[in-house]
UniProtKB/TrEMBL annotation:
Gene Ontology terms, MF aspect: D-glutamate cyclase activity
Protein name: DUF1445 domain-containing protein
Species whose genome carries this gene: Trichomonascus ciferrii
Protein family according to the UniProt entry: Belongs to the D-glutamate cyclase family.
Lineage of source species: Eukaryota, Fungi, Dikarya, Ascomycota, Saccharomycotina
Example GO biological process: glutamate metabolic process
Gene3D superfamilies: PSTPO5379-like, PSTPO5379-like domain
Top-level taxon of origin: Eukaryota
Entry keyword set: Lyase
InterPro entries: D-Glu_cyclase (IPR009906), Putative_hydro-lyase (IPR038021), UPF0317 (IPR016938)
Pfam families linked to this entry: D-Glu_cyclase (PF07286)
Length: 272
């Protein structure tokens, strides 16, 4: 927990500086207590309206919190996202998705690829409510083990918008059944970071259409102990999967799941 406390006290601008200088390249969970972390998606601006529509129609897995000025990764339309911010350099790892390629390329920056035709979107991240879980004495296992949260594609359909559709992606954290209500209360106020769980228990694995709980589609495996059940939240990687499934004709960019943008926006900005 000492490491977590040290992480929690680092200011967002300092996290971004360390990332930009490549002195920090790990998953960002636990950093900058009280501040919002965000998923990133960057695409040609001609898809902007379709993508915003997807987020509005599916606010639980796709909570849109900010977008960049087209062509400029250093400026966001929403005030207060970040001092000395460059969303093309300030995430530990990015992924570049190219048409016809099954696997993305992992890179350290995308600022050099960002043209006037591209616009970036910041999507709420469940890392933002994890400090509330820690305060309740319910730290998620991936924080304790230092890995990225496990994430799974599901069979739950999104409400489509233009070229974008597909299914939910969920993140998972194991908890004891007796702790579920406390977990729901702790995360439920974070409505722009997915809110409370969408389901829990072993029956949910089948209902969600998850093929193998021990083999996440994104992130890392975490142990589910004998007295625990899986608890599932909507996940911002849903937007990444939706763009992948749309097979758009141009390259698009995203964060590597588990490696987020730490912003200057505060928890109160996304709570009820």
């Amino acid at each position: 927990m000492t490491v977590q406390k040290d992480r929690a006290s680092v200011k967002p601008v300092d996290v971004r500086r360390m990332v930009r200088e490549r002195t920090f390249t790990e998953p960002t969970h636990g950093f900058s207590s009280g501040y919002i972390q965000a998923n990133l998606l960057v695409m040609p601006k001609k898809y902007r309206d379709d993508f915003v529509g997807l987020c509005r129609r599916n606010p639980v897995p796709c909570p849109l919190i900010a977008e960049s000025i087209p062509g400029d990764p250093t400026k966001c339309i929403r005030d207060g996202v970040g001092e000395d911010l460059n969303i093309g350099t300030d995430i530990p790892w990015y992924q570049v998705y190219r048409p016809g390629k099954k696997q993305p390329e992992t890179v350290t920056e995308i600022a050099s690829l960002w043209t006037e035709e591209y616009v970036g979107f910041l999507i709420g991240c469940s890392y933002s409510f994890e400090e509330a879980l820690v305060r309740e004495g319910l730290p998620p296992r991936h924080m304790e083990t230092g890995v990225a949260v496990p994430m799974y594609r599901t069979s739950i359909r999104l409400h489509p918008s233009g070229v974008f559709g597909g299914t939910y992606v969920v993140s998972m954290r194991p908890y004891k059944k007796k702790d579920i209500e406390a977990v729901r209360r702790a995360s439920g106020k974070y409505i722009s970071s997915h809110g409370e769980p969408i389901g829990w228990g072993w029956d949910e694995v089948g209902r969600l259409g998850i093929k193998d709980i021990n083999n996440p589609d994104f992130g890392d495996f975490v142990e589910i102990r004998e007295d625990e059940v899986p608890v599932f939240w909507g996940c911002g990687v849903t937007t990444q999967a939706a763009v992948m499934d749309a097979n758009i004709a141009e390259p698009f960019f995203a964060h590597k799941p588990g490696y987020m943008l730490v912003t200057d926006l505060e928890e109160k900005d996304i709570m009820i």
